[in-house]
């Protein structure tokens, strides 16, 4: 259930955000399950399966290449899934939509486009310039 006691957004907006986040979470978990298994030793983590195409040199090379692609994709999807889960946690805690840097409300347009955002546009721009 979404708390709204400290929110700057309508209940309807927050409900839509929650639905979008839950759909995105399901999609990410489904995508990850196609080539990785849940890692029991790392909460929220996955482990990519090493492909087995055969014993020939070209098959072994293809296995290594595909595994590298899987690891990169796994890392990207896991990061996005972690962001989605953290956004859902912020919704539950009643602190969703507050920038983690300046503590001001994040723009509604930004949250509608990227519901797992944890920073306002001003802070995000500053961070990107520093990187």
From TrEMBL:
<keyword id="KW-0479">Metal-binding</keyword>
<feature type="domain" description="Zinc finger DksA/TraR C4-type">
    <location>
        <begin position="95"/>
        <end position="125"/>
    </location>
</feature>
<keyword id="KW-0863">Zinc-finger</keyword>
<keyword id="KW-0175">Coiled coil</keyword>
<dbReference type="InterPro" id="IPR037187">
    <property type="entry name" value="DnaK_N"/>
</dbReference>
<dbReference type="Pfam" id="PF01258">
    <property type="entry name" value="zf-dskA_traR"/>
</dbReference>
<dbReference type="InterPro" id="IPR000962">
    <property type="entry name" value="Znf_DskA_TraR"/>
</dbReference>
<feature type="zinc finger region" description="dksA C4-type">
    <location>
        <begin position="99"/>
        <end position="123"/>
    </location>
</feature>
<keyword id="KW-0862">Zinc</keyword>
<feature type="coiled-coil region">
    <location>
        <begin position="11"/>
        <end position="38"/>
    </location>
</feature>
<dbReference type="GO" id="GO:0008270">
    <property type="term" value="F:zinc ion binding"/>
</dbReference>
<protein>
    <recommendedName>
        <fullName>Zinc finger DksA/TraR C4-type domain-containing protein</fullName>
    </recommendedName>
</protein>
């Amino acid at each position: 259930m979404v708390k709204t006691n400290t929110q700057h957004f309508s209940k309807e907006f927050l409900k839509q955000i929650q639905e979008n986040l839950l759909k995105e979470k399901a999609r990410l978990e489904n995508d990850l399950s196609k080539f990785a298994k849940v890692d029991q030793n790392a909460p929220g983590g996955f482990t990519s399966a090493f492909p087995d195409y055969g014993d020939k040199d070209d098959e072994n090379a293809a296995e290594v290449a595909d595994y590298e692609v899987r690891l990169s994709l796994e890392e990207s999807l896991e990061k996005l899934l972690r962001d989605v889960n953290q956004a859902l946690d912020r919704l539950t805690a009643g602190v969703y939509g507050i920038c983690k840097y300046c503590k001001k409300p994040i723009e509604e347009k930004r949250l509608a486009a990227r519901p797992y955002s944890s920073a306002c546009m001003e802070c995000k721009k500053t961070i990107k310039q520093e990187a």
